[in-house]
Design brief:
globular; alpha/beta; two-stranded antiparallel sheet
Length: 221
């Protein structure tokens, strides 16, 4: 299994690739992809990094697992390939953007348009078996994505981290909050949103307010 990663990330993460946990993870994935139907497609596992080079990262959104339905996942957290129905969490994300920025509800759930603007859409676990949520957890991905967050924290400054829900907030322990801007709220899933923990967070306008203050390009959400 080739690690198809933009060169800017390869330079930053090369030490991780040489560690034993990562070698074991790759061996696990080779067997899983050969034996089961797994998502996303092997050549899109690192899409988050390939659409958003290290030097372009201005915003980080942290998800948990890829979608495990057929044809949904495309390597970007919360994003779905065109032609798929919008999952409930993504619908609530778009509803909040409507409320926050008075933008129309989008026709596409493919968030490559965000990634290409400098939004790293990072799942904590980058792969999953079909119809088996969480099936690739605790195999090494979490260690890898912790290292990614830490590298961004250490080597960049004034990045906006959007931490949605308890799981993402725990990943936030690797962020130096004296250098970066961290926004936290509930998860956009219906379970959380329907309890009043998501809507009204205004994370999208707050992100752009911070980016403008730092002289950075705003995100067209």
């Amino acid at each position: 299994m080739l690690i198809q990663l933009h060169f800017s990330w390869h330079d930053v993460l090369k030490n991780e690739f040489e560690k034993s946990y990562f070698q074991e993870l790759i061996s696990f994935l080779k067997l899983e992809y050969a034996t089961y139907s797994c998502f996303p497609k092997a050549d899109t596992i690192f899409s988050a990094f390939n659409h958003c080079p290290f030097d372009k990262v201005n915003v980080v959104i942290i998800g948990q697992d890829p979608y495990h339905g057929l044809g949904q996942a495309n390597g970007l957290c919360f994003s779905v390939n065109d032609g798929n129905a919008f999952p409930p969490s993504l619908i609530n994300i778009f509803k909040e953007i409507q409320r926050d920025l008075d933008l129309p509800f989008p026709n596409s759930g493919n968030l490559e348009r965000w990634a290409n603007q400098g939004v790293l859409l990072l799942n904590a676990t980058l792969t999953v078996r079909e119809s088996e949520a969480g099936s690739h957890q605790n195999q090494g991905w979490e260690t890898f994505t912790d290292a990614v967050i830490q590298k961004i924290s250490e080597e960049k400054e004034n990045v906006v981290f959007l931490l949605w829900g308890g799981f993402a907030k725990k990943k936030g322990k690797h962020i130096d909050r004296t250098k970066h801007h961290v926004l936290e709220t509930g998860h956009p899933s219906p379970l959380s949103a329907n309890r009043g923990l998501w809507f009204g967070n205004q994370h999208f306008s707050k992100t752009n307010i911070f980016l403008r203050k730092k002289g950075k390009t705003l995100i067209n959400w």
